[in-house]
Amino acid sequence: MRRSHHALKSPAVVEDKHTGEMVRPHHVCLKTGMYKGQQVIDVD
Question: Does pTM surpass 0.85?
Answer without folding.
Answer: no
